[in-house]
Amino acid sequence: MAEIDDIDHHILRMLREDGRRSFSDMAPEVGLSVAAVKRRVDRLREVGVITGFTAEIDYSKLGWGIEAFTELRYAGATPVSEIIRTSTGVPEVQAVFTIAGDPDALIQLRVRDLDHLQQVIDGLRRAGNVTGTKTLMVLGSWTRSAPGTSTFTHR
Fold it and tell me: What is the pTM of this model?
């Protein structure tokens, strides 16, 4: 495990809130030089704490405004690799979580409309060893801006 101090945690919080935040913007807030902040971010990347930078997308503006989670149940001894293969081959699948217990997997979907959702679910039901599904539609979501904080962001 990487050694992370309070300044590193502060830098991580700032980057989580805005991944495009500049080193010169962060430096005064953490009391370091721009070069020192850059070195810390570089080190956090090198040790694998920071794994990448992403853009948050408003999918509704792209015509993919419906988000849903679908539980998948598989026949008996279906290997995890089969569960992942079934789900990742579907372009609407955004994430796959294999889990212990019932169900076997939880997948996150993005679709255009309810008909599209039904088509995707029907396709998943026909795939491999899927024995059952349960779909939950997202009405709204909140994400924690940083672990240990009470600030939530509505999407």
Answer: 0.77
